[in-house]
Design brief:
This protein is mostly helical and 145 residues long. The protein has 6 helices and 3 strands. The protein has helices at residues 2-20, 24-28, 38-58, 72-79, 86-106, 126-144, and strands at residues 64-67, 115-118, 124-125. A 3-stranded mixed sheet has the order 1-2-3. α1 packs parallel to α6 and α3 (38-58) packs across α4 (72-79). The longest helix is centred in the first third of the chain and has 21 residues, at 38-58.
């Protein structure tokens, strides 16, 4: 996990200045009526951090856990990310992910084989879930930037 944590730590050094350069107005523009704005995508990434934080910690405590699925559209709408301040969202995203770097580095090697099922899906190892979190983050961050 140290490689994944290191990649995330580097990303957290590089991305914030680029995110801060996006104006509040630009962050709120939707590319199309059915598409999320940058603000909503970053809100989605905050939700991802929150959901995965639970997974990273709880999955260490038992050999297998079942988690509910994540209803991304409903979560983004319920939290009204479209009306949130862009700088506040950038700060929250950055600080939450800095904590996740710490959590990733603290996961004992023998816990990475513990499994998680999401929304009744097939089991995945904690190691896979942690790696997939970063891939998901990179994908959406590329959309924003």
């Amino acid at each position: 996990m140290s490689a994944t944590a290191g990649r995330l730590a580097r990303l957290l050094e590089e991305a914030p200045p680029r995110l801060a350069a996006i104006s509040d107005a630009d962050a709120g523009r939707r590319p199309a009526a059915e598409k999320w704005s940058r603000r909503e995508i970053l809100g989605h990434l905050i939700d991802s951090a929150a959901n995965n934080h639970q997974r990273f910690v709880r999955a260490q405590l038992v050999p297998h856990l079942d988690f509910p699925g994540y209803e991304q559209t409903a979560w983004v709408a319920a939290q009204e990310y479209a009306g949130e301040s862009w700088p506040a969202l950038v700060d929250l995203w950055l600080l939450y992910n800095r904590h996740l770097v710490h959590v990733m580095r603290a996961v004992p090697e023998n816990k990475l084989a513990h499994t998680i099922s999401l929304g009744g899906g097939a089991p995945m190892t904690l190691g896979f879930v942690i790696d997939d979190y970063l891939s998901h983050l990179e994908h959406h961050l590329a959309q924003i930037l």
